[in-house]
């Protein structure tokens, strides 16, 4: 059981393909190293989904030769303890926002979540919005990185904002390519009078790309970084 963003989820040691055509279908995370033993993920977003989770849990038990035992009702409660005591014992961690002395900064380990392809729905729950925002890079000019410098200060082609979807980039660029506004105009994917670019999430991304744009939807960022690419904000 785990949280994906603000959603409670449960990962099962089941083959997601066995449930694709059933009401119990979940997300297939078989390509994610972290979920290689429990590749079927179900989001517990309603009482009905909780019932589905109970059924799937029973399927895991049956597959492993486990039998349902007798249920014994037991009253259970924990003694109250102050927050500082829980922190001292390492049972909880305190997080604060802003530049506060002693604050603990935690970064998600993206390397464990990278996969060869990802859909919008998969990306949406893979990491939180706040984690994804931290992974957006800021383009700055460097003498030893002319391609980044060019992305940081693109030529002004017009005063309109162009929009391109992730699946369009996946279809027109190769793995490892750098995507810029100039290249999109050259390929005819946005109009010639576009001077600013926003990237939106749609469909599937199946390759790592370095995407340079003025703005991204948060799910587009997730799709880019979770396939091993980079989202570079040029504004």
From TrEMBL:
Domain Large ribosomal subunit protein uL15/eL18: 163-232
GO molecular function, one term: structural constituent of ribosome
PROSITE patterns named in the record: RIBOSOMAL_L15 (PS00475)
Family: Belongs to the universal ribosomal protein uL15 family.
Gene Ontology biological process terms, A to Z: translation
InterPro entries recorded: Ribosomal_uL15/eL18, Ribosomal_uL15/eL18_sf, Ribosomal_uL15_CS
Pfam family, any one: Ribosomal_L27A
Keywords from the named record: Ribonucleoprotein, Ribosomal protein
Name of the protein in question: 50S ribosomal protein L15
Cellular component terms per the entry's GO annotation: ribonucleoprotein complex; ribosome
Lineage of source species: Bacteria, Pseudomonadati, Myxococcota, Myxococcia, Myxococcales
